[in-house]
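pls design
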């Protein structure tokens, strides 16, 4: 198992290129199963999660190749079963349900198990498939869906914690090839949903309103092959912006989409970080006085839950008190105890973290738990005095392409050790 050894204190300086979005790539790769024709997906980040999705697609029966950020898929014949051993390794495998049901009118996909960031049910996905007219049941740990009577329908996909990103994606994929009209109300508005819709439209789907809470899909008979480039990863961009802020650095982000980062930029500005657009690039300057900022995570366009942990690291060294409230995954606070090992002062109060900014953090061995929590710990290591060792970095390799190399190129003293 790899670990990162970080010697903190170096302000990040220079340029960093933002990779393609993990959370766009995963459902888009699944969507290639909707057609027997060749699809070419560009800008796919080289991560353990995206490699794994390519392996799953192959397991389902497609021919697929992943080379230099380009995934080519030809799914002439596909199976309809995704077994437990595949799904337990990556929760996002649940987004195979939509394409299998759409293309083959049946699917048997293992129910994803527990997740370190809290309960992650799929009830709303299943509600959506039922509203399309599918017969859906859970048996022996599998979702078994029979779509022979699917005819489209109107559904409300909102839940206690807002809408569902992969649930919206799943229903869009199945509905794209289901005769009749489907209307998704309270659809997720995340840019990754829009990206998937754009890919499906290139394949011949008729989808309107993606990016708004009401998405209308007029089902077509068949989808054809298509080429697509995934959007830049807004969470990777937000993480590097926060890294610049935490270290008091000066970083230019190449290829990010500021229009996808409104809530993150707004909170960084509130915290005293300077963020400017420079043509297609974004410049972040973290030197100078910082102010505490309260954050509440929300569905897009609100502040993303996937940036909560990283922003908390920034607040641990910002004078004053900030309150960070998690509304999407109320238990997503694994980073709190590890940040505490570095000297951060954070009290948990239900689904809120009350952070009292300290003058400094001090390096120590810490343990990565999930993807975004691990990113927060790396950021903390970059600013902590002395040496921080972040163990179990395979979590971070799931979602950040070569993060250690990118940080090193910005002047960070970070080494990967086996
Ligand atoms: N929810 C339900 N029932 C459902 C589905 C979701 O109650 O059937 C709840 C969830 O428990 C959660 C909320 O609804 O409280 C939102 O969950 P959502 O379904 O939107 O999450 P997801 O689609 O499974 C994606 C990202 C996550 C990201 C969330 C929220 C992918 C592969 N994953 O998950 O990304 O946190 O949306 O934005 O797209 C990450 O990249 O680190 C990550 C966890």
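designed seq:
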């Amino acid at each position: 198992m790899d670990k990162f050894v970080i010697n903190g204190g170096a302000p990040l300086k220079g340029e960093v290129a933002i990779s393609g979005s993990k959370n766009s790539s995963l459902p888009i790769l699944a969507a290639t199963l909707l057609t027997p024709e060749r699809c070419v997906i560009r800008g796919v980040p080289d991560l353990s999660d995206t490699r794994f999705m390519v392996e799953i697609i192959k397991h389902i029966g497609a021919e697929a190749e992943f080379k230099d950020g380009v995934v080519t898929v030809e799914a002439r014949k596909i199976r309809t079963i995704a077994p437990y051993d595949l799904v337990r390794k990556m929760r996002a495998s649940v987004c195979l349900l939509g394409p299998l049901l759409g293309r083959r009118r049946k699917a048997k996909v293992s129910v994803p198990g527990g997740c370190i960031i809290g309960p992650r049910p799929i009830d709303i996905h299943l509600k959506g498939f039922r509203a399309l007219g599918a017969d859906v049941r859970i048996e022996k740990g599998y979702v078994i869906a029979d779509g022979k009577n699917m005819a489209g329908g109107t559904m409300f996909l909102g839940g206690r914690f807002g809408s569902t990103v992969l649930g919206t994606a799943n229903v869009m994929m199945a509905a794209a090839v289901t005769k009749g009209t489907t209307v998704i109300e309270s659809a997720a508005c995340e840019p990754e949903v829009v990206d998937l819709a754009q890919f499906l439209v290139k394949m011949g789907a008729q989808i309107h309103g993606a990016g708004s809470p009401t998405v209308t899909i007029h089902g077509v008979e068949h989808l054809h092959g298509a080429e697509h480039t995934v959007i830049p990863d807004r969470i990777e961009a937000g993480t590097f912006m926060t890294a610049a802020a935490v270290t008091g650095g000066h970083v230019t982000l190449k290829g990010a989409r500021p229009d996808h980062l409104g809530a993150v930029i707004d909170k960084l500005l509130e915290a005293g970080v300077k963020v400017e657009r420079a043509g297609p690039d974004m410049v972040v300057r973290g030197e100078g006085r910082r102010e505490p900022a309260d954050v509440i995570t929300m569905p897009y366009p609100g502040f993303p839950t996937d940036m909560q942990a990283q922003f908390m690291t920034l607040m641990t060294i910002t004078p004053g008190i900030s309150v960070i409230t998690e509304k999407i995954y109320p238990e997503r606070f694994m980073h709190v105890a590890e940040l505490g090992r570095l000297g951060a002062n954070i009290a948990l109060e239900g689904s809120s973290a009350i952070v009292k900014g300290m003058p400094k953090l001090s390096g120590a061995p810490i343990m990565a738990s999930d993807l975004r929590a691990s990113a927060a710990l790396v950021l903390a290591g970059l600013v902590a005095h002395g040496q921080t060792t972040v163990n179990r970095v395979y979590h971070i390799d799931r979602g950040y392409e070569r993060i250690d190399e990118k940080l090193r190129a910005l002047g960070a003293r970070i080494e990967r050790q086996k």
